[in-house]
Amino acid sequence: MTANTIIAYQGHEGAYSHLACRHVHPELTPRACESFVEAMFMVERGEARLAMIPLENSTAGRVEEIYRLMPKTRLHVIGEHFEPVNHCLLALPGTRIEDLKTVSSHPQALAQCAENIRSLGIEPVAALDTAGSADELSQKRTPGHGAIASSLAAELYGLEVLRENFQDKTGNTTRFMILSRDQMIPPLEKDVRYITSLMFRVRNIPAALYKALGGFATNGVNMVKLESYMASETMTVSSFHLDIEGHPHEQAMKFALQELNFFAEEVRVIGTYEAHPFRFSRLNLEL
Fold this sequence. Notes:
This protein is an alpha/beta fold. It has helices spanning 16-24, 36-44, 64-69, 107-112, 114-119, 130-140, 151-157, 208-218, 251-263, 282-286, and strands at residues 6-10, 29-33, 50-57, 61-62, 76-84, 88-91, 102-105, 123-126, 145-149, 160-163, 173-180, 194-202, 222-230, 238-245, 264-274. 29% of the residues lie in helices and 33% in strands. Strands 1, 2, 3, 4, 5 and 11 form a six-stranded mixed beta sheet that branches. α8 (208-218) packs antiparallel against α9.
């Protein structure tokens, strides 16, 4: 197996990140990593072709660690993927739902399934992650114990799916970014919608952020996401992650980016890629 055939992700085999790798790049071999740092730096070192990294979840919010890690790499965002989270109630083969006494999973998954867990009279047990809970169940084979994880985890660990869509509310979705060591800006094409992601730090002047972003408003460029984070140990410098609907080769974007560069420091375009269809789907608009 060569590095060019590997896509890295954080988590156990069977995690939702693993599932996303399968859906987006079935031709590549997913490689599980213990941390986001390990997955990202596998790509940075040339030991993997791509990394599938979660950036935000519609229920749990943003993965703040990623915003702090990206400036420490020279990776590029070459695509995005929205993966629906379908929590499954898993058990050892032959187990009935009424046999379950306890169920383990990541605390967020337990919280997202809390009402269904309570209705079955099952005691929740917090674990490090969803797929890890399925793996542990398959090894320890504890009677009366279940796990909440993906259908892929059930497949990999020989477990039975007792109930799909076990989450209390529908629409739980995770947005992933696909990272590469090489920049891959697609050519500008008519009728194709693009997202451009960038990072920057504002200058230490009054209303710096307002002035830096003003060019997008005056040039009719839509900003779809703005996240702030402290990149300095002194807690005095704010850095920003910005997602814009547009392509750098469009004239309006050129003018807006010129204004941003004038009022901001360390502006770095980390990727331009086609917008995922989920952004414009009816389900996303209802969330």
